[in-house]
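On clarity, I found the account of how folds are encoded harder to follow than it need be. Since the whole study asks how a given chain folds, the encoding of that fold should be made plain. For the editor and my fellow referees, an illustration may be useful. An entry of this sort, consisting of the sequence and the corresponding backbone structure tokens, reads as follows:

:::
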Amino acid sequence: KQWYQRRVAITAGGGGAIGSSAEDNKPFLDYIAIQADIVVFNVDYRLAPETKCPNNIKDFYEAIKYICKDASSLGVDPSKISIGGDSGGGYICLGAMVLLAQNDEAGLVKLAIPGIPMTDDYSFSDPAAMTIEENESAYMMRKIWKLIAADFEAQKCNPHLFPGKASHELLEKFPPTIVSECEFDMFITEATRLATRLRRAGRLLEFIVIPGCKHGSYMMPDMGCFKTWGDTFKTVFQEYLHK
């Protein structure tokens, strides 16, 4: 295709923003590129604990800026750029969305798709009110967030660390957003809260919940939800990015 026909997905991999790499995510992203007929940029952002917030989200933000600025030389359409990520990558995506909003640059992105995202400090709350999956992962998530933070106590109300705490005024400046989740995900409550707030702010296009699956299980080709997810997101890109 000519450059002006090529749609883009800029993605951040998972691993809690402390593990995994761009190379680990390549097979899954190859599938997305083919299934959705898009060009995928797989961003290898720096990980905690060596790199602390906000420098982790700044890596992804700067990659977005670079691709938008040099779209022509990269052979892609600057008006058809989407961003996304799953799990820890969902947090990185949301953190970059906060930076875009703070700098009045959300117009650079046509579509944001944070998936099964780490969003806020819900894991620090009373586990009695949590789902089984949330309860089982709460101790681990507390450890992970403290590895990501440069100074947890100083940053715990900062949307760079917890994008789910962005103000209503900041959410109103977000790119158009689709939040995707799994029915039995360990981040379902915090993602639902964020989706509700984004809807109130007029920035939510869809809140998609893949039924019957747990955290990231839709990435596994041998799982029944893999096809459901693939078909769903092929439709998402056709409806919101290709048009």
Summary: The radius of gyration is 17 Å. The first strand starts at residue 8 and ends at 12. The chain is about 45% helix and 15% strand.
